[in-house]
Design brief:
Layout: E1 3-9, H1 17-26, E2 35-40, E3 43-48, E4 63-64, E5 70-78, H2 81-88, H3 92-95, H4 100-111, E6 121-129, E7 134-139, E8 148-151, E9 155-159, H5 162-166, H6 177-184, E10 200-201, E11 206-210, E12 215-219, H7 234-251, E13 259-262, H8 268-282, E14 287-292, E15 306-307, H9 311-321, E16 324-329, H10 336-347, H11 357-369, E17 374-376, H12 392-398, H13 402-416, H14 420-444, H15 459-464, H16 467-474, H17 486-494, H18 501-510, E18 515-517, H19 523-531, H20 545-550, H21 557-560, E19 565-566, H22 572-578, H23 580-591, H24 594-599, H25 602-614, H26 618-638
Parallel strand pairs: 13-14, 13-17, 14-16, 15-19, 17-18
Antiparallel strand pairs: 1-3, 1-9, 2-3, 4-5, 5-6, 6-7, 7-11, 8-9, 8-10, 11-12
Length: about 650
């Protein structure tokens, strides 16, 4: 989806041609279809072009406004084009071939720095305003694109990927201990910090205004301010949801080259695929899908509430749609270690799902080889379309809704086949009374750190950073307990900046010439799902009630009625065993590294590795995913800075 970069010398020196050339060269794989540079005195902006929509063909960026007063560089797909055409008064003959970048520039000319509020889609851009002598940067609502930046007293630089910044000799390359610790303890905080000191990421739904004297940043959209939505009936909620969700899928199918989907056995990607297949069918076309399935037997590798082989559910969804062609990804040629190394090359940063990289890399390779231009995913669905409302029973009890509580308890008992006392103890007493008491006890007495059971972090390093105290001050629960306030819980999970998953997929896709798009993170979908009552997500003992009802004609009951969830990377242990020598070699390098030893609990990682070498079960598989491979990714990242291991 293209890339942007730029530099503003605050001390007034002119931008040299080689400065912009160096930034673009460092990230040239983002733009296989062309590049452009604009310079004027102390300001320079660059663009790398990937043809991702029909309108992007022949686009020429950076783009100068008709008045000559503004210059734009943009990495964008605008999804509300028709609305903007009307608002901006653009004549019909000009609309069909108008690139999205021209729409953004006209939006800025009309609304100025308020223009991000009117744009829907995946986008980020930079505008140099000659009249105001300001550099204006903005990023989309949920952060499915990215802007990294660095500033000191002499210059401000930005780029779609960190490689563009590292091309500048004055940008430091030093690890950021706090961000590394956050990843190791599964603290989801992806707003501004990166794994490098001094390099930051513009948070989602934010803009920046840079002048030679000041740098200001502000948030232009607040998801939490979405007003409640009350409709007349349950069916009204389904109808309204399907109208919004269908449009979110449909608008992301606008592509110059073929569009495919990722398809798992669950409801999120399954619903995206079902809607996309219906849209394809209306045009007489078939929908290609890419599905990760195990290479090895995963019997007894998943906990009882999970399933490791999703292929039966994938097949059921494909058969029900009737026009989905599935390509199964078994990733036999990509080892976990090599996939993590490739991910580090693509991101220059740490990613949470280290153990999933082998199938992600393999899937991207396959889609690129088959000539695809865009891939739809459903990665953000857990917090939006398929929200489980885990604290619903406790919320009913807290607010004295006794009739509803009794009805839901009886229905949940029948649905889950669990004793009533166990439901009351686990879903009401524990979150309302036991968890708060335990938390107070832990604060008063010395007690094992709550993250110790799932993290490869060195305990001394964590204590030096006061990581547990920082978590609590920031409102993060390291025990991942149930939150009774369901709207607050939904917002915590979905809020812009909590997860970088959208932009991580964009960065990965860029390495393979692909544009990755997620309808479940559409601004309109997020607002709708946050606005409706809890009882639209859980009813009669069934969670994810909204998406189950909405998809009843588009997906098979076999998938819709499944209570378990798929477990990605269920065969990671078998893969480790077959590539043990490669993995052990990396561990030995880490064990000789002073820096890795400071950050990581290497003895713990070694114990998990040796256990997995000889025996596998659900708990060891979980430890490999949460502790070992996440620690291994951090270790490989740290080896970039430490030569003591050589």
């Amino acid at each position: 989806m293209s890339a942007i970069c730029g530099i503003f010398y605050l001390d007034g020196r002119p931008v040299a041609p080689e400065t912009m050339d160096g930034m673009l060269k460092a990230m040239d794989y983002w733009g296989p279809d062309g590049s452009g540079v604009w310079r004027d005195g102390p300001v320079g902006m660059g663009h790398l072009l990937l043809y991702s929509t029909p309108e992007s063909v022949g686009d020429n960026l950076p783009r100068t406004s008709s008045s000559g007063n503004q210059v734009l560089t943009a990495h964008a797909r605008i999804d509300n084009r028709e609305e903007l055409f009307r608002r901006l008064g653009i004549p019909a003959p000009e609309r069909q071939k108008m690139p999205d970048s021209a729409l953004i520039l006209q939006a800025y000319e009309k609304w100025g720095q308020a223009c991000p509020e009117y744009l829907i889609g995946d986008w980020c851009f930079g505008i140099w305003d000659k009249n105001r002598q300001t550099l204006f940067l903005a990023r989309d609502h949920h952060g499915n694109t990215g802007i990294y930046y660095f500033q000191n007293t002499r210059f401000f630089a930005f780029s779609s990927c960190m490689k563009g910044l590292f091309a500048l000799p004055d940008v430091p390359c030093e690890p950021n201990p706090l961000r590394i610790a956050q990843l190791l303890v599964s603290w989801p905080e992806h707003g501004e910090p990166t794994a490098y000191q001094g390099i930051k990421r513009l948070p989602p739904a934010h803009m920046m205004i840079i002048t030679k004297d000041t740098i200001a940043k502000r948030q232009y959209w607040h998801l939490e301010n979405t007003p409640p939505l009350l409709l007349g009936s349950d069916q009204d909620y389904v109808d309204a949801f399907m109208e919004i969700y269908t449009e979110a899928v449909r608008c992301r199918m606008r592509s110059l080259r073929p569009v495919g989907v990722t398809l798992s056995g669950g409801l999120d990607s399954g619903s995206v695929a079902a809607i996309a297949a219906r849209e394809m069918g209306l045009m007489g076309n078939r929908l290609p899908a890419f599905s990760s399935v195990p290479l090895y037997d995963v019997t007894d590798m998943a906990f009882p509430n999970r399933f490791g082989d999703e292929s039966p559910f994938i097949e059921a969804t494909a058969r029900h749609a009737g026009n989905i062609d599935v390509t199964y990804i078994r990733a036999a040629d990509v080892s976990p270690v090599r996939a993590i190394e490739r991910a580090l090359e693509l991101h220059d940063d740490l990613v949470p799902a280290a153990a999933n990289q082998y199938w992600i890399i393999s899937l991207m390779q396959k889609a690129q080889a088959q000539g695809f231009g865009a891939i739809l995913t459903g990665q953000g669905g857990n917090a939006t379309i398929s929200w489980r409302a885990p604290g619903h029973l406790a919320a009913l009890a807290r607010y004295g809704q006794w009739i509803s509580l009794c009805r839901e308890l009886i229905a949940t008992k029948a649905e889950k086949q669990r004793p009533l006392w166990r439901l009351i103890a686990g879903r009401i007493v524990k979150p309302l009374f036991l968890d708060p008491l335990v938390e107070r006890f832990h604060r008063l007495r010395s007690y094992p750190e709550p993250w110790a059971r799932y993290s490869a972090i060195n305990r001394e390093f964590a204590r030096e950073l006061s990581i547990t105290e920082r978590m609590r001050q920031a409102g993060h629960d390291p025990k991942f307990g149930t939150i009774v306030d369901q709207r607050k819980d939904r917002f915590i999970i979905i809020r812009p900046g909590r997860s970088a998953i959208g932009f991580l997929w964009q960065e990965t896709g860029a390495g393979f010439g692909l544009d990755v798009r997620d309808p479940t993170q559409d601004k309109r979908v997020m607002e709708f799902c946050l606005s409706i009552p809890d009882n639209q997500f859980v009813r009669d003992g069934r969670d994810r009630w909204l998406i189950r009802r909405a998809m009843k004609d588009l997906m098979p009951a076999f998938v819709l009625d499944e209570a378990r969830r798929g477990q990605q990377a269920a065969d990671i242990g078998r893969r480790l065993q077959t590539s043990y020598g490669e993995t052990d070699a990396v561990m030995q390098s880490l064990e000789h590294s002073e820096l890795a030893g400071r950050y990581l609990d290497l003895p713990l990682m070694r114990r998990i590795l040796e256990k997995a070498r000889h025996h596998l079960d659900p708990q060891i598989t979980s430890d490999l995913v949460l502790i070992f491979f996440r620690g291994l990714m951090v270790g490989l990242f740290l080896l970039r800075f430490d030569r003591t291991s050589e």
